[in-house]
Amino acid sequence: MPDSLPVHINRKELHGLEVPDTFETSDSFDVRLINHGESTHVHLHLDDSLSKLAALEATNYHVDRDSERRVRVTVDGDGETRGNLKVVTAYGSTTRYVDVRIAEPEPEDEPVQVDEDLAKPQPKRDSNTGFALADVPDEQVLAVGGAVLFFAVLAAFLSQNLLVVFLALLVAIGTLVAVYAAAAR
Asked: Which residue spans traverse the membrane (predicted)?
């Protein structure tokens, strides 16, 4: 799709306007006001349906003699619409309409960024071992074991219940085994 809509002014006659019949886009675009003759003012207007998705910064533009001026039409909304762009010169004596269709933008295929580290072979872990206590630092094992042992003894002392005392004893034995395994490394 073209990114600019050409409008020829004064090419064949004074105050003459030549515009394409239709224009299709999916994004913001420029209206190229190409003046082939005397300086003039050009009025641009988007109809109601185009104004829902697009906007002009201003509506009146001065185009110097034998020059070109670009006017940005900013497409902000999502969706499709069709409407008319009105182009007027010579204080309304010459008017032309361009049938403008704003289509949905094509989805862009964004490239996938791959980190260089991904190409390097990763060390293989034995899938049978899973999580090993040996992977945990000794200080953490001792700290958690001490805290568990403290709360187990406290619960047994406060409850004076035989079941709680038995469970606290099991926790204490498990903690001592974990501490012994950590120390054996």
From this structure: 141-158, 164-183
